[in-house]
Amino acid sequence: MKPSLIADFSLLFVALIWGATFVVVQNAISFLEPLSFNWVRFTLAAVLLGLWLTLFERKQIKSFDKKVFLAGFILGFWLFIGYGFQTLGLVYTTSSKAAFITGLSVVMVPLFTIILFRKRLSVNAYIGVFVATIGLYLLTMTDVTGLNIGDGLVFICAIGFALQILLTGKYTSQFPTLLLTVIQIATVAVLSGISAILFEDWQRAFDPSILLTSEVMMALITTAVFATALAYLIQTKFQKYTTATRVALIFAMEPVFAAITGFTWAGDRLSYSAIAGCLLIFAGMILAELPATRFPKLKPVLTTKKGADTEV
C-alpha cells in the first residue's frame, strides 16, 4: 500500500477517535470546566509521551535544540488557540454553529496553502472542499440564528486548527516525530493551565471528588491516551506523506463520526439533512483523494508562479 494511503487511513482513524470521544467529553465538562479539563488532559498526554520518549526513544532527545522547540511551540500555540477559542465561543453560541464554523478549517487550509506557501491545487481538490463544506452545513446547522460574538471566537478557533494542520505538514519532515509531538502537547498543557487559572475556578481540577467521578476519569483517560497522545502522534508521523488539504477533509469526518456515535450511544436522532451532510462530507473526501489523471480535463486552475508545486 502506498505511504499516502496509509497516512490517509491513519488520519481517518484519528478523526474516528475524536468523533467517538465527543459525547464522553461533553459529559465530563459538566463536572470540570473546559479549560481545566484540557489542562489535565494535555498534561497527562504530555507526561505519557514524555515517558515513552525518555524510556524508548532517547536518541530523539539529542536532536533537541532551539529550532525543534520553536516548531513544537508554534504547533502547540495554534492547537491551543483552536481548543481555547472554541471553548470560549461555546459560552455564547450553539454547539451546532460552533461545529460548522470550526469545520470551516476545511476551507481555510487550502486558502492558507495558496497564500502562505504559494502552491496550487487541482480542481478535484477544490470540488472536494466545496462539497464537504455543504455537507458540514447540512450536518451541523440545524438552528440558523444571527451571528454573535461567540461565532467570531469560534472562527478564530477554526483559523488556529487550520494553521496547526498546515504547519504540521511543514515541520514533520524536519524534526523527530515523538520529540515534536511532546513539545506541542506540553505547550497546549501549559497554555491551558495559565488560561484556566485566569478564567476558571481552576481548583476544581485538583478536587478528588470531581476528578475521581466515573464520567471525568473515563473522559480523561480516553482523551489523554487516545484522543491526544495517540492522535497527535499519528498526525505528526503520517502527515508528511499526504497534503494539508487532504488532512483537513479527512478531519472534516470528525462531526460525522460524532453524529454516528451520538446516534449509537446517546440515542440522538439524525435528521435527513444531517444524513445528507454526512454523505456529502464523505463524498468530498473521496473526490479530493481521486488523482487528477482520472479526469484529464480537471487540470490545476490556479498557478501562482511558474514551476510552483501542485498540491493534489
Automatic annotation (TrEMBL):
<feature type="transmembrane region" description="Helical">
    <location>
        <begin position="68"/>
        <end position="92"/>
    </location>
</feature>
<protein>
    <submittedName>
        <fullName>EamA-like transporter family protein</fullName>
    </submittedName>
</protein>
<feature type="transmembrane region" description="Helical">
    <location>
        <begin position="123"/>
        <end position="140"/>
    </location>
</feature>
<dbReference type="InterPro" id="IPR000620">
    <property type="entry name" value="EamA_dom"/>
</dbReference>
<feature type="domain" description="EamA">
    <location>
        <begin position="149"/>
        <end position="287"/>
    </location>
</feature>
<keyword id="KW-1003">Cell membrane</keyword>
<dbReference type="Pfam" id="PF00892">
    <property type="entry name" value="EamA"/>
</dbReference>
<keyword id="KW-1133">Transmembrane helix</keyword>
<comment type="similarity">
    <text>Belongs to the EamA transporter family.</text>
</comment>
<keyword id="KW-0472">Membrane</keyword>
<feature type="transmembrane region" description="Helical">
    <location>
        <begin position="246"/>
        <end position="266"/>
    </location>
</feature>
<dbReference type="GO" id="GO:0005886">
    <property type="term" value="C:plasma membrane"/>
</dbReference>
<feature type="transmembrane region" description="Helical">
    <location>
        <begin position="178"/>
        <end position="199"/>
    </location>
</feature>
<feature type="transmembrane region" description="Helical">
    <location>
        <begin position="98"/>
        <end position="116"/>
    </location>
</feature>
<feature type="transmembrane region" description="Helical">
    <location>
        <begin position="38"/>
        <end position="56"/>
    </location>
</feature>
<feature type="domain" description="EamA">
    <location>
        <begin position="6"/>
        <end position="140"/>
    </location>
</feature>
<dbReference type="InterPro" id="IPR051258">
    <property type="entry name" value="Diverse_Substrate_Transporter"/>
</dbReference>
<feature type="transmembrane region" description="Helical">
    <location>
        <begin position="12"/>
        <end position="32"/>
    </location>
</feature>
<dbReference type="InterPro" id="IPR037185">
    <property type="entry name" value="EmrE-like"/>
</dbReference>
<feature type="transmembrane region" description="Helical">
    <location>
        <begin position="146"/>
        <end position="166"/>
    </location>
</feature>
<feature type="transmembrane region" description="Helical">
    <location>
        <begin position="211"/>
        <end position="234"/>
    </location>
</feature>
<feature type="transmembrane region" description="Helical">
    <location>
        <begin position="272"/>
        <end position="290"/>
    </location>
</feature>
<keyword id="KW-0812">Transmembrane</keyword>
